[in-house]
Amino acid sequence: MDKEKQVYSMLEKVYDPELDQPLTELGFIDHIVIKDNHVEVVIRLPTYWCSPNFAYIMAEDIKKYVSELEWVKTVQIHLLDHCTSDEISRGASAGKSFSEVFGALSDGDLEELRKTFDIKAYYARQEKLIKYLLNRGMTKKEINSLSLQELNELPLPEEGKLLREKYLEKKKVLNHSSTFAITTPEGKPLSEEEFSDYLQGAKLTRLSMEFNAHYCRGLLEARYNLSAAHEGSLAK
Questions:
Q1: Residues paired with residue 33 on neighbouring β-strands, in sequence order
Q2: What are the CA-CA distances from residue 119 to residues 39, 88, 141, 180 (Å)?
Q3: Which class is domain 3-108?
Q4: Residue 55's closest CA among 8, 19, 31, 25?
Q5: Residue 103 — very low, low, confident or very high, per pLDDT cuts 50/70/90?
Q6: Is the pLDDT of residue 61 over 60?
Q7: pLDDT at position 233, please?
Q8: 183 - beta bridge partners?
Q9: Whole-angstrom distance, CA of residue 32 vs CA of residue 45
Q10: Residues 130/97, Cβ–Cβ less than 8 Å
Q11: DSSP 40-65
């Protein structure tokens, strides 16, 4: 795999925190530049006023994941056309925290914000997995009583395996100690009585995120005059 493909494979791991979709699919990666073992990642966002907090999280994650490639010596971030382009580009490239860059204008570092979005992504991914299992004939009771081991051992086709993998990825981030597969974001098992209402709430979270993602794609397409064919390829 050549260097450019290696960098893009790492960028596929970087998600918009609010939308829980990869920057590569959203079209937020404008291009990359590789000189020797130094990488510059140029990113663009749907509007000039997109939240600096969200932008900084993405920039930090770009630097983190691309830096994991053994041959990469430095990673520079270049954010285009944003109200805080210079601050975010310089700060994230230098490995500084959000509060170091924005000082009194920040509400501190971004860990609490990251956790908030991890929980939303957890709900959305969980709802997709539960709906998939229900459509395959599992009952609410069976899903509710699944252990993590049993979930991992379920013989699922590729679509199901991907949904399971993405859900468990967020479950791991939330550091659950429970052995139950399906729990609240706090790791609490669900009772049969609360299952349906809980699932409905998770569905609303997912729909809100998907609507926002569709809206952001439209804004990005209009802002940068992206062709419909190009945009369609981003929304696989």
A1: 40
A2: 32, 25, 24, 17
A3: alpha beta
A4: 19
A5: confident
A6: yes
A7: 40
A8: 189
A9: 15
A10: no
A11: EEEE--SSTT--HHHHHHHHHHHHHH
